[in-house]
Amino acid sequence: MFKFRIITFAILISLLAGLSGCLKNSGPWTHGLAFDRVLIIVLENTDYSAASADPYLSSLAAQGASFSNFRGNFHPSYANYLAMVGGKYFGTVFDKQKDIDAPTIADLLEARGLTWKNYAQDYPGNCFLDASQGNYARKHVPFLSFKNIQTSPARCANVVSADQFPIDVSEGKVPNYAFYSPNLINDAHDTDLATASSWLKGFLEPLLNDEKFMERTLIEITFDESKTYLNNHIYTVFLGPMVKPGFIETAKTSHYSVLRTFEENFGIGNLGNEDKEASPIQTIWK
User: Fold this and answer.
1) pLDDT at 2
2) Rama region for 282: left / alpha / beta (φ>0; ψ in -120 to 50; rest)
3) Residues 106-165: pLDDT tens digits?
4) How many angstroms separate the Cα of 29 from the Cα of each of 23, 99, 188, 248, 269?
């Protein structure tokens, strides 16, 4: 009987080891994080064809994993930003600002003890809720549209000036989820793609060349929507040591797909909206 128990235990251990091996090799979503933090940078109102032809954005696609069939969810801009963090359409009318009583990915992250910030260029600070000031636009800073952030000083303190970003990099304090909102000049909204591309290169290259920062860091560069309203076809690229360089994903993807990917990676569940129905991005990982 004792010998039989030893054999049975050995078989059980063998089966568990085999299962562990299967999980370990079946993709990033079944065995833990593909990345420890993500930096999202959103540019504005550019067609996929124009962005793909830009020399710098083209070079980023060669370095990282890009998406040839990525679609914005809405027109105009505001609803896309809300979808990126809230996972659905919130009934907005054009870009008129709205105060929304709903959770976002910030709620899911906090529930698991993970950190987040929205860095915004030219942000006046102190939970400023006006629609705009100078080159700052609230519609491009999605977390400020949600009441449970607006009404909490501690949570609203996670929306900060972009001047804080290099400080956080140097001190190793960039959060697990970092949403970076360039101003209306640098995101191409009030200028053009060449201006945005030049700004992005100056901002991004020091980060890509910083081995310490890039370790276990995923960077997403995307546009909110296309310039023309037909198809809403936009450029998106993922950069980081965990993605296949030069890989092109041809399946249809969207801001919802990206949100679901982040949720799955961090193991935080989902918001039960369109993000729940979207498939996470799985083919691009090493």
Assistant:
1) 36
2) alpha
3) 999 999 999 999 999 999 999 999 999 999 999 999 999 999 999 999 999 999 999 999
4) 9, 33, 34, 20, 12
Identify the structural domains of the chain with CATH numbers, from first to last.
Answer: 37-277 (3.40.720.10)
Side chain identity at 12, as an amino acid letter? L
Neighbouring C-beta atoms of residue 56, cutoff 10 Å: 16
Asked about 190 being catalytic, the answer comes back as: yes
CA 43 – CA 239 distance, rounded (Å): 16
The greatest distance separating any two alpha carbons of the chain, rounded to the nearest whole angstrom, comes to: 81
CB 78 within 8 A of CB 92: yes
pTM of the predicted structure, to 2 decimals: 0.89
Task: Name the pairing type of β-strands 116-120 and 177-181.
Answer: parallel
- 99, 190, 192, 210: which one is catalytic? 190
Which contiguous run of DSSP H or E holds residue 83? helix 77-86
